[in-house]
Amino acid sequence: MRQGSGEVARLGQSGTYDLDIVLVMIVLLTIGLIMIASSGQMVILGKQSAGPHFTLFCRQALFMALGACFLVICMKLPYHLYRRYALYMLGAAFVLLVVVLIIGTEVRHAKRWISLGKIDFQPVEAAKLALVVFLAATISEWGERVRDFTRGFLPLVGVGLLMAVMLALQPNYTNAAFIIVLTFVMLFIGGCRLRHIAMCVLPLAAASPLLLRVPKIMTRWLVLIGKAPADPWASYQRDQSLMAFGSGSLFGCGPGRGHQKFRFLPDAHTDFIYSIVGEELGLIGTIAILLLFVFLMRRAARTARRAPDSFGYLLAMGLGLMIFMTAMINIAMTLGVFPTAGLPLPFISYGGSCLVASMAAIGIIVNISFEGREKRLPVEFIAARKTGSAEYARRA
After folding, report:
1. Which domain holds residue 83?
2. Which of 63, 112, 248, 394 suits a disulfide with 279, CB 3.0-4.6 Å?
């Protein structure tokens, strides 16, 4: 009888997969397929330059099938293994970033892709995933050491800055800035001192005007603040994006009935697919997608709070923020409140690299939810949150 009761108790404490976050991902993937089927019809592919086609739709479906494999594997693989191989993952990411600079395929004067037959792989998406895993593993292992500027904080910032520099060499300035922000956010969540963050952020902010010497960045900044740049076509993509939102009104013109995809809006199937959503699904569709990403982040944060250890907490929060921040930057860009950036909309934009990496990240979060469904954070994390403002004062 006691043995049976113990078995029931063990089963009662065992976790269950957080399928809500998977359901949200499936909804986003479905919306993405519909939008790609619409916006990708008139994209020029090789000699196919006229007439509608669904080549991109079929490719995206194949990418989703590959992503589903990674999703299932990451759901079943215990997340503790990533802690053991975090350094190897980071090393592999740096190797890929070096390789892309050497043999990468150049598109629009940037080397960001490695050609694998008929598939182009973008290493930056794997690098983001590896960086989050590495920071989560290192911060959880070092503990109070991250509060030491020279022995803890500075080495981790150095890793993020080195990765950002390698991305800037491609050049990929948007992802370089994203990596820096993601690094500081992870360190803040991990409990580093606020003054250490300020000591690094303030000099970087003071040096940011030097970036305006880069013509591409200068042009995008002038477009953002509404001043006419030297190139009259510089604001064309932003203007067409806003036109798509304006023509969509409240309910949109209906899936497949938009006009901006007919080569008026560049990159309508990738970076600016949210504009097509606004045109064809209207304000209702854009708000629905925004709320789905907010809900996804909320579930990731819930999983982090219930993680059985600090590594699970940092990993779930880092991966959730990686997806959520990417989505928010993309949405802000299409609305004209952020400079034009090369960040796709996760689960919706066309492309295999971001899609597979995002689905793998969801798989890891789901595995963390399984491990710690009925558990809570360790004592030190609970105590840190109960102290409220006093904890922030101590960290400063």
Report:
1. 55-395
2. 248
